[in-house]
Amino acid sequence: MAAPAAPATAGRIALRHRLADRGMDRTLLLLVPAVVFIVALFIYPFVYGLQLSFQPQPGSETVQRYGSGPFADYHAFFADSYLRNTIWTTLKLSLPAGLFNVIASVPIAYRMRGKFRGKRTITTILVVPITLGTVLTAEGLLAFMGPTGWLNRLLIDVGIVDHPVRFTHNYWGVLFSLIISGFPFAFLLTLSYLSGIDPTLERAAATLGAGWWQRFRFITLPLLAPGLAITFCLTFVLAFSVFPSAVMVGDPSGTTRVISIAAFHAAFEQYDYSMASAIAMIMGAVELIVVGLVLGWRASLYRGASGGKG
Amino acid sequence: MSAAIATERKGLALRPGAWLVWGAVVFFLLILAGVVGAVVVDSFGTRWFSGWLPSGWTSRWYGKTWHEFDLGNVLVVTLEVAVAVVVVSLVVGVPAAYALARRTFPGKRVLMVAFMLPILIPPITYGVPLATVLYKFHLAGKLSGVILANLVPAVPFVILVMTPFIEQIDPKIESAARMCGARTRVIFTRILGPLLIPGMLAAAVLILVRTVGMFELTFLTAGSDSQTLVVALYYSVSAAGIRAQQEIDAMAVIYTLFMLVLLVVALRFVNPTQLVTQIKERD
């Protein structure tokens, strides 16, 4: 018995050594809790939701109208213009908000990239709206930009308008809230990308006689572009999932009925979890398409040394 | 002195671009001050229908909102959720970050992508299926469900923050300790532990702030007695009309103060540009 056992042990040790050579040893056991966690609370719900979205809920409106085939919920979503239009409503809010945040932060960050007194104060103040979150921003916008708020009062007293301008409970209110909570984030990211660009490159261009516009257009901007693509993606993702502000300062049944409201409505007001999962999947797909397009464009850009670390 | 000021003025006057940029910054900060200021002023006013300021001042709204919304309880729930999320996410995340920082193994890239997805996908997208699963197992609507849901972005965040932090600790220190006869457990408690504390503190504070501010996941999974402050605020706003606007604003001010205290504590440990480099590493 002892003779056959010896090679087996040797084989086991060899396997263990072979695995250790590739970095597989007992240290990897430390990963187990995190892997179990991510599988149980992220991957399983996601797969469950995906599978649920192909099984229309019996007795739901979808089944009565479009049958119980696997794609009935998706069919229902795209056939109903009230649901289908939520995609455009969301894109109409999140694309301008993302673009504005990125484009506005470029000149400001360009001006502030050097060292000056009070820079730390300004960056600290700009972190505040990130921590306040959308709920408080929306509440503040209602008070500040409402019909009797300070902004309308100022506009009337100065004589720019005769009647209060409607800033809240419409498209603009939501856009403002997205800019207030998204701009500081985009600005801080752009600033850190800009400070990663070697300033001597611009000076070299200046000695060759390039004006500030040429220096910005042909030196800084190409190096900054990959970083801007990432910044855009992150602010876009934040704006795309807008939910509380679309309800609070928006017009949740009309012009700002974004896709997350539709998903929430299906899940917790109609209790049609299949439809809600289908909407969540469509939401994820649309978002990943936009992010994929931007990242695809980014892949075609120069990303070498002294770039904005993008 | 006056000559220096004059040249400085001239320098500024020569650049309309600089004025435009600084004007935009001041404009943004003014709007920000207006948004926060309007809420604070209203919460202390007796009545404010017209005019620049309320007709009188009072602090009774704070007492009223505290009792009517049972804010003491809400604050306790908020802290319970936040502390539980911080502790569990550190216990689960730090060992994983250690393994990811020290070993390269087949499938590591796939694992990294799986850990990054909950941060890149917006909460509502995975929150709806997650809430469905939690309701299926009768966990949603309770404190445990809220904690579990909030852990989903928190654990990847710990891994994201801690992996580069552990990478920059020299592995020779561990080898030296091992050579001196330290066992694995001793290495973790006596050698790595103290070295990791600054990183763990930074991660803990950031998660605390994120969890207190996290609306979507808590909103999708909370029941009536497991609401956090931000969800209670949302409900009070969307059910406005029953209660005085000032009460809601008082609640918003309490929330702001709560966040501000956390922020001040956070900024003692983390610097805001560090926040950005951490975000940058998501790429």
How would you explain this protein's 3D organization?
- The complex is a heterodimer of chains A (310) and B (283).
- Chain A has one domain: MetI-like fold (Orthogonal Bundle).
- Chain A contains 13 helices and no strands.
- Chain A has helices at residues 2-21, 32-53, 61-66, 72-79, 81-112, 119-145, 150-158, 171-195, 199-207, 212-240, 244-248, 259-268, 273-299.
- Chain A is mostly helical and 310 residues long.
- Chain B has two domains: 2-43; 62-280, MetI-like fold.
- Chain B has helices at residues 2-13, 16-43, 60-68, 71-102, 108-120, 123-136, 143-167, 171-179, 184-213, 216-221, 229-238, 245-269, 272-280.
- In chain B, helix 3 (60-68) crosses helix 12 (245-269), helix 4 (71-102) packs across helix 9 (184-213) and helix 7 (143-167) packs across helix 9 (184-213).
- The longest helix of chain B has 32 residues, at 71-102.
- Chain B is globular.
- Chain B starts with a helix and ends with a helix.
- In chain B, 41% of the residues are buried.
- At the A-B interface, helix 2, helix 5, helix 6, helix 7 and helix 8 of A face helix 2, helix 4, helix 5, helix 6 and helix 7 of B.
Strand content of chain B: under 5%
The top-level CATH class of chain A is: Mainly Alpha
Major beta sheet of chain B, specifics? none
**Beta fraction of the residues of chain A?**
under 5%
From the structure above, extract its key features.
heterodimer; A: 310 residues; mainly alpha; MetI-like fold; disordered N terminus; B: 283 residues; 13 helices; 0% strand; disordered C terminus; MetI-like_sf (chain B)
What order do the helices and strands come in, and which of them pair?
The complex is a heterodimer of chains A (about 300) and B (about 280).
Chain A: H1 2-21, H2 32-53, H3 61-66, H4 72-79, H5 81-112, H6 119-145, H7 150-158, H8 171-195, H9 199-207, H10 212-240, H11 244-248, H12 259-268, H13 273-299
Chain B: H1 2-13, H2 16-43, H3 60-68, H4 71-102, H5 108-120, H6 123-136, H7 143-167, H8 171-179, H9 184-213, H10 216-221, H11 229-238, H12 245-269, H13 272-280
Helix pairs in contact in B: 2-12, 3-12, 4-7, 4-9, 5-7, 7-9, 8-9, 9-12, 11-12
